[in-house]
Specification:
Radius of gyration: 22 Å
EC number: 2.1.1.228
Region (Disordered): 1-27
CATH architecture of the largest domain: 3-Layer(aba) Sandwich
Largest sheet: 5 strands, parallel
Distance between the termini: 72 Å
Strand order of the largest sheet: 2-1-6-5-8
Family: Belongs to the RNA methyltransferase TrmD family.
Shape: elongated
CATH class of the largest domain: Alpha Beta
Structural class: alpha/beta
Number of domains: 2
Strand content: 15-25%
GO biological process, one term: tRNA N1-guanine methylation
Number of helices: 8
CATH superfamily of the largest domain: SPOUT methyltransferase, trefoil knot domain
Helix content: 25-40%
CATH topology of the largest domain: Alpha/beta knot
Domain tRNA methyltransferase TRMD/TRM10-type: 34-260
Length: 268
């Protein structure tokens, strides 16, 4: 007799049903940060989010994950969720009526204030996802992510629900699930007690507007390349100065856009 797999303590999952269950009823962990994901592939989660620090935090109930399967909201015998694009063209478009029901279900019990609970469609035409956005999401009560597929989503449902479009980068994926996992990872690691050392998030790339300085560890010399002597000096002020200089140099060389924004924000 097979034993069903145990579900992580912090993970919540929506059961596919033609009569979606009420998401507004209280469920533990009540105070934890929550993410709800509307997707055609709920089995893709938690994926890498179930590993390492994010996975441990999920099991400990420091955050919660809920997948809302889009397929049961589909139309007809085959539960179709998409149709051909109006005006012609390649591919298929996710239907507004199907997504409307899924979004209504996913948002039950969530605050109407979008600062407290963002509603996001993962789209290559969206606003770029940044460290600042991850920090804003981590300060919210939760977030709902809509993972697109095919050619895209009927614009009417995005307008009706005032869905924010966010992009992982200037490239196209086959669906939003990978982007969702990346954004969730970036957000969850900012939650209290997820990382062992809170200071590490303050020193990372983008946190201060610059890319992060280089890192070194043992051995002290590797293939005739020694660790920079200042890092072994024990002089914390000099180490901090060296790291700042390195961060500025790396940012200026690799990300002129970030460098320009950072220098513009510096006092004269």
């Amino acid at each position: 007799m097979s034993v069903p797999p145990r579900r992580a303590a912090g993970r919540l999952a929506a059961t596919p049903s033609l009569a979606p269950r009420d998401l507004s009823r209280p469920r533990p962990p009540a105070m934890a940060w929550q993410v709800r994901i509307i997707t055609l592939f709920p089995e893709a989660f938690p994926g890498v989010l179930g590993l390492s620090l994010t996975g441990r935090a999920l099991k400990e109930g420091r955050w919660g994950l809920e997948t809302v399967d889009l397929r049961p909201f589909g139309i007809g015998k085959h539960r179709n969720v998409d149709d051909t694009p109006a005006g012609g063209g390649a591919g298929m478009v996710l239907r507004a009526d199907v997504l409307d029901r899924a979004i209504d279900t996913a948002q039950r019990g969530a605050p109407a204030d979008r600062d407290a609970w963002p509603l996001v469609y993962l789209s290559p035409r969206g606003r770029p996802f940044t460290q600042a956005m991850a920090r804003d999401w981590s300060r919210a009560k939760g977030v709902t992510l809509l993972c697109g597929r095919f050619e895209g989503v009927d614009q009417r449902v995005l307008d009706h629900h005032a869905v924010e479009e966010v992009s992982l980068g200037d490239f196209v994926l086959t669906g939003g699930e990978l982007a969702a996992q990346a954004m969730i990872d970036a957000t969850v690691r900012l939650l209290p007690d997820v990382l062992g050392n809170a200071a590490s998030t303050e020193e990372e790339s983008f946190s201060a507007g610059l890319l992060e300085h280089p890192h070194y560890t043992k051995p002290a010399e590797w293939r005739d390349q020694p660790i920079p002597p200042v890092l072994l000096s024990g002089n914390h002020a000099e180490i901090a100065r060296w790291r700042q200089q390195q961060a500025e140099a790396v940012t200026q060389a690799r990300r002129p856009d970030l460098w320009a924004a950072w220098t513009d924000g510096q006092p004269d």
